[in-house]
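Exam revision sheet. Question 4 asks you to relate a sequence to its structure. Input first:
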Amino acid sequence: MPNNPYVIEVENLTKSYGSNNVLKGIDLKVARGTMLALLGPNGAGKTTTVRILSTLLSFDGGKVTVEGQLLTGRENLVMMGRLYRLTAESAKARAQELLEEFNLVDAAERPAKTYSGGMRRRLDLAVSLIATPPIIFLDEPTTGLDPRSRIAMWEIIKRLMANGTTILLTTQYLEEADQLADRIVVIDGGKVIAEGTANELKSKVGNDRLELTFKTEKERTEAGKVLGKTVVSTDEKENSVTVVIKDTNTDVKDALEALAKKRILVQSMAIHKPTLDDVFLSLTGKQKQPSTEGEEA
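Answer key, structure tokens:
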């Protein structure tokens, strides 16, 4: 038998979400063969502590030691079910349902710490659904996931919505909001600056966009001067300019004729419908920065 009498040891454990300090220096020890109860009101930090101990959540500071085999995906779900006061039988049944729902059955008996980023994200969401809550808050649930894992998470979220769950989603992916949300609120500088459906927000931007690409930087610069105030953006990397068009046939014809008169050759062109990127740029004056991706499913 190991010499250390404590199976779980936590020293000065801290965890914050932005300015909200959830755990402010937790210290606790659980002796071998004993039960320690965490007692406290809603929001006290009980669930956060347990999720950290079960490796489902990272922590900011302190030291955590848990002896023995790490909890498997199934054990995490069963444990959280018991914390939500499900019977042992109900907790096991609910765990199996969620493992199937989130495509984690094959990895159910593996320690959760060995899961890839996408799998851990799915398990984390499954844990939050143990008690089938009517409302779910999803804080950037697909950040850092590769495109395949992101799409899989979208399908899960769509199924939750189809089953009547109310969801508040924060996301840094404009396409994600476009694909999933019934309504969108745009926040900038701590204030709501726009609200509506994706189509309503796009209609505020208004018209279609004509993207013109040129072979040389000189041609692109000259084209910008010729097209003047109709230019809404310039892409130096792609050597292109984008202009607003109200009447597709007339405005495209006029733009090409104006460039032809100055002997400016257009290498390629494309017409785009307004996107949420256009909305974001129009409302905030800032281009949405792409995020680094790369975690696996």
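Marking note for examiners. Residues 6-66 form a domain with the Rossmann fold fold (CATH 3.40.50.300).
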